[in-house]
Amino acid sequence: MSKQRNPLLITGILVASLVGLTSCLAPAPSPAPSSTEPTPTTPEPTPTSVSPPAISWYKTFGGLDDDYAWSVKQTTDGGYVLAGYGPNYDEWEDPTQPPPRDAYLIKTDAEGNKQWQKYYGGTGFDSAYSVQQTKDGGFIFVGYSVFSYGEDEDVYLVKTDVDGDEQWYKTFDISKGDQAYSVQQTSDGGYIIAGRTSIRGQLDALLIKVNAQGTEEWHKTFGGELFDEFYSVQQTTDGGYIIAGYTKSYGYEREYVSEGDKNIYLVKTDSQGNEQWHKTFGGPHDDDARSVQQTADGGYIIAGITFNKYDDAYLIKTDAKGNEQWHNTYGGSKTDQASAVQQTSDGGYIVVGYTVSYGNGNDAYLVKTDALGNEQWYKTLGGVRLDTGFSVQQTSDGGYIIAGVTESYGEGRKDAWLIKIDAERK
Fold first, then answer.
1. Closest C-alpha among 127, 114, 12 to residue 65
2. Would the pLDDT of 377 be above 60?
3. What is the 3-state secondary structure (H, E, C) of 388-426?
4. Which pTM was predicted?
5. Tell me: the pLDDT tens digits for 40-59?
């Protein structure tokens, strides 16, 4: 694309605030493993009733620097598309400055072999956090863009054709610090975007609706006097939207807790983004939602993090009005987090995130539950360094596809990571 930008003097990206990891220090690169499967880890005792399925294959993508995969979807041809960002050496014009960090899409076949990789952005920093295949066979992704050093972020929306060639892009400058983490194509052919802005000086949760050409139709902000942010949005069966993130403005005995404490923030709107209701979940410490999905019964499933001495992975099931039906936590005596959830074909749920409690101590964490959130099995994925999962989807063969980041495998300090898991044995 042809955006002209000034060089961006950024030598590091502060990702830890988004993923909630306890450490993002990048150790020296480690050699790629000789096996086609990540190093087996010794699981801790857990009340699972089914053996976890095996790894079909895994792939890494990246160079000697840091590359990230935040989102994955299975495509109509049986392959996969990943969204993330990393250094774009093809556009590196000034060797005295770091290479531009650009958004990218990677398309693979059904076995994870790369078919193409396309970069999007200019000479600054551009990111992609959420991707979906569109009705025309192309792709839509969203993230944020920084044009030059010292400037604020803008929401960054890109539409491509089936080969990843850009058809159009849009940036949205609502106020300061605009970022987006979730996008979905809507029933009218347009798109709904969730993220954050800062109209009142603090962070406000943000919802943007655009038409099929990316032209804004409306935007809404949500929250109170403190920090509020959305991470996940989905159109609901009534044509409205369900959005999840965190709030510091509302929730558990807000007058008695510190301004640093978060509660899970669930908002339901009509088709025009007008709030119908909101709910908060959590206690006196940090609770944060990273993913929400409408379930087959018309209710909602939320995945995130709750704090009780250490972080635990957290699932909450609500009815159609947002009233809690049950919640469960997953993990051990150390930090464990959930990044994404999807309802599975058997009515249960698949959750991906990160665990310090099990495996090698810094592993991607995959948990399968029944319809009531009872753990059926879990699996850790990774090696001796930091590895995490950000996105999961059940695939057409009944297995699962995971996107994340690995420091244990690949060529760079951090590499984009794609893992295929077999279906459970019947």
1. 12
2. yes
3. EEEEEEECCCCCEEEEEEECCCCCCCEEEEEEEECCCCC
4. 0.87
5. 343 443 455 589 999 999 99
Mean pLDDT of all residues belonging to the chain: 87
The pair of three-digit structure tokens given for residue 379, joined into one six-digit string: 């699996």
Q: What are φ and ψ of residue 90, in 5° steps?
A: -65, -25
Residue 242 CA to residue 139 CA, distance in Å, equals: 22
Report the relative pairing of strands 228-235 and 241-247 from DSSP bridges.
antiparallel
pLDDT, tens digit, 9 for 90 and up, residues 197-219: 988 668 999 999 999 999 999 99
| Confidence grade of residue 148 (pLDDT, cut at 50, 70, 90) | low
Beta carbons of 103 and 141 less than 8 angstroms apart: yes
What is the CB neighbour count within 10 angstroms for residue 40? 11
Per DSSP (E only), the strands in 236-297 are 241-247, 263-269, 275-281, 287-294
**Are 335 and 310 within 8 A, CB to CB?**
yes
Q: Could you tell me where the beta strands, DSSP code E, fall in 35-190?
A: 55-61, 68-74, 80-87, 101-108, 114-120, 125-126, 130-133, 139-146, 154-160, 166-172, 179-185
Nearest by Cα to 99 from 23, 191, 178, 7: 7
Using DSSP, state whether 262 is helix, strand or coil: coil
> Could you give the dihedral angle defined by the CA atoms of residues 19, 25, 29 and 34, in that order, rounded to the nearest 10 degrees?
-50
